[in-house]
């Protein structure tokens, strides 16, 4: 981001000189690198971890992209989250025109579109017959693509929709592996629930609002981890998964709300 243009945008919203002074100091302050060296400000970026480093890029992109689209392409709809955005167009020709203009606009502001992530995607569904175009993209943790929607009596139709992305599932499974709670046999199951429930609630509230079925592999893996924890804690089960599952069934019977995903009906490993 060009600091001169950023400060110009800030002056449209901030009248207090002392606030502008502090923001300028944050932008121009030197950065201490991991190797101990000090790097002077280059005049086009915000320091990582800065108090307003998330707010300033949004303001910059508001004038660089949001306002520009409103003025020159008022009929086009756009969704933006930080520096990720989707522009909805009515045709391939319109897409190519806007993409070309957007690239020029970004260069003017000292920015460039990601060469691999930036692409034109065809929203394929029933009734749309074009072929040979990309039909899938990821956005804020979801994968947008043609999905087969099942109806009653064996009927179905193809709809362009979204579900939890593979990258999101992989990231969650990696976080469970890093947590390694199955090795913490000193915990009681109530302690385990307190440890896991905030994470489970976050996954369910974010991804489950769109597609609860897409969380099934995540909770399947989580249940296997919980079974491992049971086997590590209770040596009397002698490594028997059947005994561990039966013990968890009893816990589920008497404490059905112990784990947050149990409350939502994800009990397939235990019923």
Rounded to the nearest angstrom, the distance between the terminal CA atoms is 55 Å
Lateral strand order in the biggest sheet: 5-6-7
- How much helical structure, as a percent, in the residues? 40-55%
Mean pLDDT: 89
SS elements, strand count: 7
Anisotropy-based shape: flat
* H/E topology pattern: HHEEHEEHEEEHHHHH
Contiguous runs where pLDDT drops below 50 for at least 5 residues = none
The biggest beta sheet is recorded as: 3 strands, antiparallel
Strand fraction equals 5-15%
- Total DSSP helices: 9
Structure description:
There is one protein chain. The protein is an alpha+beta fold and 271 residues long. It has 9 helices and 7 strands. It has helices spanning 3-11, 17-28, 55-72, 92-108, 166-179, 189-207, 216-233, 241-254, 260-263; strands at residues 31-32, 38-39, 77-81, 84-88, 137-139, 142-150, 156-164. The strands form 3 sheets. A 3-stranded antiparallel sheet has the order 5-6-7. A two-stranded antiparallel sheet has the order 1-2. It has a two-stranded antiparallel sheet with strand order 3-4. α1 (3-11) crosses α3 (55-72), α5 (166-179) packs parallel to α7 and α7 (216-233) packs across α8 (241-254). The model has no long low-confidence stretch (mean pLDDT 89).
SSE topology sketch:
Blueprint: H1 3-11, H2 17-28, E1 31-32, E2 38-39, H3 55-72, E3 77-81, E4 84-88, H4 92-108, E5 137-139, E6 142-150, E7 156-164, H5 166-179, H6 189-207, H7 216-233, H8 241-254, H9 260-263
């Amino acid at each position: 981001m060009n600091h001169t243009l950023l400060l110009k945008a800030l002056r449209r919203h901030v009248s207090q000189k002392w606030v502008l002074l502090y923001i300028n100091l944050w932008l121009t302050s030197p950065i201490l690198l991991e190797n101990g060296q000090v790097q002077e400000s280059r005049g086009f970026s915000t320091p990582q971890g800065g108090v307003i480093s998330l707010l300033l890029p949004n303001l910059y992109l508001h004038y660089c992209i949001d306002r520009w689209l409103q003025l020159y392409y008022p009929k086009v709809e756009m969704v933006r989250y930080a520096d990720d955005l989707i522009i909805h167009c009515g045709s391939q020709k319109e897409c190519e025109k806007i993409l070309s203009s957007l690239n020029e606009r970004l260069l003017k502001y000292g920015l460039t579109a990601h060469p691999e992530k930036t692409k034109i995607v065809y929203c394929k569904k029933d009734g749309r017959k074009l072929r040979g175009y990309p039909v899938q993209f990821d956005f804020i943790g979801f994968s947008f693509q043609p999905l087969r929607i099942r109806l009653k009596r064996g009927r179905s139709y193809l709809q362009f929709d979204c579900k939890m992305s593979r990258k999101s599932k992989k990231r969650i499974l990696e976080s469970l592996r890093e947590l390694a709670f199955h090795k913490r046999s000193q915990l009681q199951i109530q302690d385990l629930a307190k440890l896991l429930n905030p994470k489970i609630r976050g996954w369910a509230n974010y991804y489950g609002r769109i597609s609860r079925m897409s969380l099934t592999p995540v909770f399947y893996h989580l249940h296997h981890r919980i079974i491992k924890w049971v086997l590590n804690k209770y040596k009397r089960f002698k490594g028997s998964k059947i005994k561990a599952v039966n013990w968890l069934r009893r816990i589920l019977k008497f404490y059905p709300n112990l784990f947050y995903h149990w409350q939502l009906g994800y009990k397939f490993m235990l019923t």
